[in-house]
């Protein structure tokens, strides 16, 4: 570096012209000894196809290699779900909320049915409640496998994604046998579930828990001690707890900062109150912690599934309802711990079969709002490690 | 703090600035005058007894002629209590304005931009509501206002086939009446009667047709057909609906119910499973004969009988079949078959047989005409009997209604029995096309060479 500077200074005129791209050149003004003033550059990252995994359009102002300002440009996938929900009845909304975060579909359904059930003061049969917890955790594992695989891929490690998709495929088969869907399960109903589990589902779940637990260790072996991985993620994109909560950041990015806020523990819904829910937390709040929490959460979910498998009672899985479900007048907010963070639905009803207003509070929206804070001052080359470890789904940001 | 204590505390501190407070479903919503929103939010954040550090969300709500309200939801990670601060924007529907709180909570910035984008509420002091956050730059109007019409719904009625019957149980698009409870008792009775008649006719037809099929296939006892149907019917029936079944089907229902219990509760099901096995043995002797004689027919219709056996396996602690090889284990176990041998063809997932080496001729024959599209069935689960699949076939129908059992009976035949004769021509046609193509390409190659 010094050599270059010396060489430049030695040029006549006190200024230097460095070779740029064809037809262009970059003017470098030399002010003092070894001190360079660079021209700011605006770099437009994206837009990609909005359904591509883990990409977001970001306009970045660069000062040299450092990011001076980052502005996410969202809305490419805005489909007006909140407006659509106002024109649908509650059973149709279940299919709708499946889709804003397509990697957490069952957990999204949970939020809506819980809101309607609480407003109607409906008792859900025990068995249905337990099965909901079971399905939530399988969905969580599916989601985390996706991100564990893709984060490795973004950092240049090809293998984890193959491993992750192998497990995802198996679990999706399992879910498909019960729900009929691979991504959009639409298995919840107001008052219970669509139908009971197929025979042998619990035994197959047990087997699957063993498989995934064994293989979760493989991800750790692949990445946890990997020098390149550590070098690219340690102390990169450090988030402090105060900033995190003021942005409303939740899920792995929040837990990585050491704040273990998780509504399954603090305000248990469904049957989470009767089981032990482990919440892995980090210490540094950096990309590495965020990733390791994701892997740990897979194990935590497996623990929960094991507890659930031992306690599912027999009985009906739904209750009889009138043909048209109407929530009584009023407003309610229900939050659930979704795989990517806290999901919530603010439901305002005027007593009809459609909601008057259904606000979808999505974890990705709040988490991405915080990204400019993380990127400011970071190196451009760290952007991937930062963005990849915030774990978001574009559809969940835009709704 | 409890919602009540919170409300009192805020009333004490904000005095006249609080317009109203509501506690519903354990959640406190405090309505303040619009100018006091920043003060109220700041109090919530900075008061050590409140310590609302977590910004959850902010949402606009259309309040009809009052204009627009904005709800700000805060949470305290220390005390784990919630609050919703509500304010109705000044300026009515024409020019809604509210002071910003984006300087108090960083997360409010984007949420206020969203509220502006969706409702047109201007947050005074916000660093930049434009460009619009979710909609496109040149978007006209504010989509979540109630006067912004959802055009698709305006120009075209709901396209779904199954809109819940509004004429009967919706009182003219909700004018504030209590939710109606559904059709009147009279209507219900009539509908139920009609339904039952239709189902009965269908079931009778299906029974007749199946008997004919079986007679054609090998002239075996109609008993097997009866058993099948009973089992299929009972498999999907929930205990509640059991009363509607004919007395002759009670036996099948009994074992089906036993299974349901066991699926949920591995521990308390020993007696039920024993029962199931006994029943299965009884059914198996009949079915075994059937399968031996008319194995071609077995795969489609005999499935329900195999499931109790499968369940018994599960209850006995046997592992679930690993993905892709369910057939192998099943065969090994039953090689020296007893009376359950007849179940085998159906117990295997169609298509797996080609992988299993020692299939005895009868069994192989039993699997040949099985449906080729085993995509859904090759899940790592034991092959599913009709009992599990039927509700799915009818999933579009109703929210919570458990389908009537006798309604489902015929569907089994309609949906899952495949007529081998119909498939043949397709296959041969494709083969012919393939051959043609090959011949064509060979001819082309020859042309090239010459």
Explain this structure to me?
- The complex is a heterodimer of chains A (399) and B (450).
- Chain A folds into two domains: 2-73, no CATH class; 81-393, Cytochrome-c3 Hydrogenase, chain B (Orthogonal Bundle), CATH 1.10.645.10.
- Chain A is globular, with a radius of gyration of 24 Å.
- In chain A, the strands form four sheets. Chain A has a three-stranded antiparallel β-sheet, with no helix packed on it. A three-stranded antiparallel β-sheet of chain A has the order 4-5-6.
- In chain A, helix 3 (90-97) runs antiparallel to helix 4 and helix 5 (126-154) runs antiparallel to helix 14 (383-390).
- Chain A has 15 helices and eleven strands.
- Helix content of chain A is 46%, strand content 16%.
- Chain A has 399 residues and is α+β, with helices and mostly antiparallel strands.
- Chain A starts with a helix and ends with a helix.
- With 450 residues, chain B is of the alpha/beta class.
- Chain B has two domains: 3-146, Beta Polymerase, domain 2 (2-Layer Sandwich); 192-419, no CATH class.
- Chain B is built from 17 helices and seven strands.
- Chain B has helices at 3-14, 37-46, 108-119, 151-155, 166-169, 185-217, 222-236, 250-264, 270-293, 295-301, 303-315, 326-334, 344-347, 361-367, 386-393, 405-416, 420-449; strands spanning 18-24, 27-32, 54-62, 68-75, 82-88, 97-99, 122-124.
- In chain B, the strands form two sheets. A five-stranded mixed β-sheet of chain B has the order 1-2-5-4-3, with helices on one face. A two-stranded parallel ribbon of chain B has the order 6-7.
- In chain B, helix 7 crosses helix 15.
- Chain B is elongated.
- Residues 166-182, 219-420 and 422-427 of chain B have low confidence and may be disordered.
């Amino acid at each position: 570096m010094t050599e270059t500077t010396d060489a430049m200074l030695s040029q006549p005129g006190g200024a230097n012209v460095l070779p740029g791209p064809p037809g262009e050149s970059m003017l470098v003004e030399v002010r003092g000894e070894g001190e360079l003033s660079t021209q700011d550059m605006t770099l437009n990252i994206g837009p990609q196809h909005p359904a591509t995994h883990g990409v977001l359009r970001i306009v970045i102002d660069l000062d040299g290699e450092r990011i001076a300002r980052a502005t996410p440009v969202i809305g490419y996938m805005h489909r007006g779900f909140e407006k659509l929900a106002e024109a649908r009845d509650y059973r149709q909304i279940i299919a709708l909320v499946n889709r804003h975060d397509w990697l957490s579909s069952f957990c999204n359904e949970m939020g809506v049915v819980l809101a309607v059930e609480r407003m109607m003061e409906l008792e859900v049969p025990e068995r249905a409640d337990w099965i909901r917890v079971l399905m939530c955790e399988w969905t969580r594992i599916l989601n985390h496998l996706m991100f564990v695989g893709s984060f490795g891929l973004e950092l240049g490690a090809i293998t984890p994604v193959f491993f992750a998709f192998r497990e995802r495929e198996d679990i999706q088969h399992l879910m498909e046998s019960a729900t009929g869907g691979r991504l959009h399960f639409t298995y919840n109903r107001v008052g219970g579930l669509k139908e009971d589990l197929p025979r042998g589902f619990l035994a197959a779940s047990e087997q699957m828990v063993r498989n995934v637990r064994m293989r979760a260790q493989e991800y750790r072996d692949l990445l946890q001690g990997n020098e390149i991985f550590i070098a690219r993620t340690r102390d990169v994109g450090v988030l402090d707890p105060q900033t995190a909560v003021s942005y409303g950041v939740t899920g792995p990015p929040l837990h990585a900062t050491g704040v273990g806020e998780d509504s399954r523990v603090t305000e248990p819904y469904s049957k989470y109150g009767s089981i032990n829910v482990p919440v892995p937390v980090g210490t540094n709040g950096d990309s590495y912690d965020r990733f390791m929490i994701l892997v740990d959460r897979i194990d935590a979910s497996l623990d929960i599934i094991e507890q659930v498998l031992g306690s599912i009672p027999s009985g009906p899985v739904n209750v009889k309802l009138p043909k048209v479900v109407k929530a009584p007048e009023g407003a309610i907010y229900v939050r659930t711990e979704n795989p990517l963070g806290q999901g919530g639905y603010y439901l305002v009803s005027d007593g009809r079969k459609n909601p008057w207003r259904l606000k979808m509070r999505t974890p990705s929206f709040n988490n991405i709002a915080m990204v400019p804070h993380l990127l400011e001052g970071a190196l451009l080359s760290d952007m991937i490690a930062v963005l990849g470890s915030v774990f978001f789904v574009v559809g969940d940001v835009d709704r | 703090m409890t919602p009540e204590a919170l409300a009192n505390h805020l009333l004490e501190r904000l005095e006249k600035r609080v317009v109203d407070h509501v506690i519903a479903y354990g959640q406190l919503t405090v309505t303040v005058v619009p100018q006091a929103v920043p003060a109220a939010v700041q109090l919530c954040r900075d008061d050590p007894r409140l310590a609302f550090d977590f910004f959850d969300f902010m949402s606009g709500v259309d309040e009809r002629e009052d204009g627009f309200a904005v709800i700000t939801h805060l949470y305290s990670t220390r005390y784990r209590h919630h609050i919703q601060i509500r304010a109705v924007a000044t300026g009515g529907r024409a020019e809604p304005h509210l002071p910003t709180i984006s300087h108090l909570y960083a997360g409010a910035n984007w949420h206020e931009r969203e509220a502006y984008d969706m409702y047109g509420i201007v947050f005074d002091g916000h660093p930049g509501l434009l460009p619009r956050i979710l909609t496109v730059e040149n978007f006209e109007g504010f989509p979540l206002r109630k006067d912004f019409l959802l055009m698709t719904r305006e120009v075209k009625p709901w396209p779904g086939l199954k809109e819940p019957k509004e004429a009967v149980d919706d009182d003219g698009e909700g004018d504030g009446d209590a939710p109606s409870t559904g059709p009147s008792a009279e209507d219900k009775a009539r509908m139920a009667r009609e339904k039952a008649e239709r189902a009965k006719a269908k079931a009778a037809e299906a029974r007749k047709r199946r008997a004919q099929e079986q007679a054609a296939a090998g002239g075996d006892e109609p008993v097997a057909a009866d058993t099948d149907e009973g089992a299929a019917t009972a498999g999907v029936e929930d205990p509640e609906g059991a009363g509607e079944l004919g007395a002759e089907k009670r036996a099948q229902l009994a074992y089906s119910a036993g299974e349901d219990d066991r699926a949920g509760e591995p521990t308390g099901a020993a007696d039920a499973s024993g029962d199931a096995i006994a029943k299965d043995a009884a059914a198996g002797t009949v079915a075994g004969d059937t399968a031996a004689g008319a194995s071609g027919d077995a795969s489609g219709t005999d499935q329900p009988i195999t499931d109790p056996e499968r369940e018994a396996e599960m209850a006995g602690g046997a592992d679930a079949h690993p993905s892709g090889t369910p057939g192998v284990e099943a065969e090994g176990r039953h090689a020296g078959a007893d009376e359950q041998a007849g179940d085998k063809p159906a117990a295997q997932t169609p298509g797996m047989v080609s992988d299993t080496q020692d299939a005895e001729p009868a069994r192989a024959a039993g699997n040949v005409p099985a449906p080729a599209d085993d995509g859904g069935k090759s899940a790592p689960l034991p092959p599913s009997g009709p009992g599990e699949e039927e509700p799915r076939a009818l999933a579009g129908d109703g929210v919570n209604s458990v389908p009537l059992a006798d309604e489902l009976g015929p569907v089994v035949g309609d949906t899952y029995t495949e007529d081998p004769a119909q498939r043949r021509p397709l296959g041969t046609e494709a083969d012919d096309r393939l051959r043609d193509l090959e011949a064509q390409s060979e001819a082309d190659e020859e042309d090239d060479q010459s």
